[in-house]
Amino acid sequence: MQTNKFHDLCVLIPAFNEEFKIVEVVNNLSKHFQNILIIDDGSTDRTGFLCKSLPVKLISHPYNMGTGAAFQSGINYLNNETHIKYVITFDADGQHHLHDAINLAIEIQKVPEEIIFGSRFLSQKSNVPLIKRLTLNFAKKITNFFFNISLSDAHMGLKAFKKSCFSKIEIHLNTYSYETELIQQVSFHRIKFKEMPVNVTYSHYSKKKGQSIFNSLRILEDMLKIYLKIFMKRRRAE
After folding, report:
1. Which of 13, 66, 142, 192 is the most buried (most CB within 10 A)?
2. How far is CA 230 from CA 8, 72, 139, 174, 223, in A?
3. CB neighbour class for 71 (10 Å; exposed up to 12, middle 13-18, buried from 19)
């Protein structure tokens, strides 16, 4: 695969305390993607220092603001990069696979949809742990019902975007729950989307970095807050 095939695409990587993985992740991606943007979300380890020697654009938050804030910072920056037309979001902890990012990058340039959601549940080789699978399925059902949308995986970090849809997206939630807010805006603005199967490597390291069942339960709690807020707005409008 030639690097220049993706000259108008950027890989956006939110990172917080990823000194043990960030170099490996970037080195693998840079073999196929020439534009990589890292949002160092207030890391207190050597993440920011290591990124300065990598072939990336680096934006640093002064303190840890959350994945949603990092995503929005990336959107704000890329909106001013006129040569970038497509964006892939990719986790910094090594759980996403390079070949999935390449497949999404190829597909987003060909399809009419503006967003491609990676899904762990479209592949027959899905290795999602049972408890996490049950939690994610519950979150998916609530999200699909409330927002009148159809997704098989509502909280997957690997996605592809056409930059044209960024004018319709503004993230206010700073935590992992920004995924729910994003889906709400996709539904509200009727942004065209599709799904593609992706795989995830659940290592001991990635689980410590935020893939635990306790983090999933926090996501569910934040989701309920979103739903309650929207419900109250609808009631006041009636």
Report:
1. 13
2. 36, 21, 17, 18, 11
3. buried
Q: How far is CA 199 from CA 5, 35, 95, 184, 204, in A?
A: 23, 23, 9, 24, 16
Provide block-wise average pLDDT over 10 residues at a time, the chain (238 residues).
74 97 97 97 97 97 95 96 97 95 97 96 70 72 80 90 94 81 90 95 64 58 67 67
Domains and CATH numbers, the chain: 3-237 (3.90.550.10)
Residue type for position 193: F
Q: How far apart are CA 138 and CA 208, in angstroms?
A: 22
Rounded CA-CA distance 30/11 in Å is 10
Residue type, 40: D
Instruction: Compute the distance between CA of residue 74 and CA of residue 107 in angstroms, rounded to an integer.
Output: 21
Please check whether residue 187 is in contact with residue 3, taking contact to mean a CB–CB distance below 8 angstroms: no
